[in-house]
Amino acid sequence: MHLRHVAVAALAVFTGACEFEVSSVEQALVACPNWACAQNNPTLNNRNFHELAEDGTANAEGFQLGPMVKDGVSYRVRVVGTRLTGYSRLNTISGAALVGAYFYVVDQGQHVLRVNINGIAAVPVWAGPKKGELLESYRLEWSDPVADRIQNLCSTPPLEKPQGSELLGQKGDYTLVFENARYDAKAKTVLPGDRNWFNIGCAGHALSKLLLTGHHPLTGSAKVIEQQATLKMLVADYCGDGTPFTVGGEPLYWTSSNGYMPFFANPETLEARWNEHGAVCIGQPRLKTTKSTIAQQTFPSIDAAIDEQCAATRPPSCDDIDVNNFDSALVVSGNPINE
């Protein structure tokens, strides 16, 4: 039997469904993905996504999770807290035992992909109440048996970047998985958690940063408005409508009013103050003096880009440029010295 038929049949058994609806997902390339230009996104078949459902329900991009396989034995995929597991009626595998396992993902009910678990590494929580607590991260590579290709699940693994303020200690080609919160990728809002769904956070991705800085229920007790303010800050959603005005890897220092996250170092200038709706006020946008070629090409004038997106509702300039003054905001971001 062809691999596609085997995987689809197995998925039907595990999900209790035998039919797959083809999703009408927009396939056209866009200037920037939902999370930001050049963001290190989870990616399959050249399409970004950030979550999967354990019961095989299709996500917004049309991807359906199938069974995990290790040594010829099939398991259900389950994420418990921040740990990936495979379980069946007779056995459960987790931790180091996952290396060498793989799980299927069906693309729009037709194309079967395989995600291989090739490594596990510990990453400590960077900040917040559980600072230092070790989480599991996974080196995931997806393969297309038909096209005979294999690549990292993350789109642009930052292998040469220091594991400091940008990656928060996470290895560049590893991912985090975690349940207990969902996110609207377009609106950049925090949604109620659903036990059936789990997130995939690549190194340097906004969702990984939420988890690693305590702005997620599994690693801290930040209020939902604090989580959302942090998310909007991370993607530079100045307008508050979900539009990101940043690129992956752009240097930025930030601090949270709940005390979880201090500035990584002293900022040179104030970037913005933030609440759950977006920027409260703007100092100097982070791409104003960027050295990123991608940022320069995408946003030749960052001020003009912000004005075009939200001319009538653009946040005012910050009267007080003291980076240590929250002025009732939930998060403050600052720009490092651009040398």
Question: What does the model show?
Answer:
Helix 2 (206-212) packs across helix 3 (224-234). This protein has helices spanning 3-15, 206-212, 224-234, 293-298, 302-310, and strands at 43-44, 47-48, 51-53, 63-70, 73-80, 83-87, 92-94, 102-107, 111-124, 134-144, 149-152, 175-178, 182-184, 189-191, 197-202, 253-256, 269-275, 278-282, 331-335. Residues 1-30 have low confidence and may be disordered. With 339 residues, the chain is of the alpha+beta class. A hairpin with a 2-residue loop joins strand 17 and strand 18 (278-282). It is globular. It folds into 2 domains: 1-221, no CATH class; 224-339, no CATH class. It has 5 helices and 19 strands.
> From the helix content, strand content and strand pairing, which structural class follows?
alpha+beta
How many structural domains in the coordinates? 2
- What oligomeric arrangement do these chains adopt? single chain
Q: What's the shape?
A: globular
Using the CA coordinates, give the radius of gyration: 20 Å
How much strand content do the residues show?
25-35%
What is the makeup of the main sheet?
8 strands, antiparallel
Mean pLDDT: 90
CA(first)-CA(last) distance: 59 Å
Element pattern in H and E = HEEEEEEEEEEEEEEEHHEEEHHE
Low-confidence stretches: 1-30
How many distinct beta strands? 19
Q: Counting H and I runs of at least 4 residues, what is the number of helices? A: 5
Helix content: 10-25%
Arrangement of strands in the largest sheet: 7-6-5-4-8-9-10-11
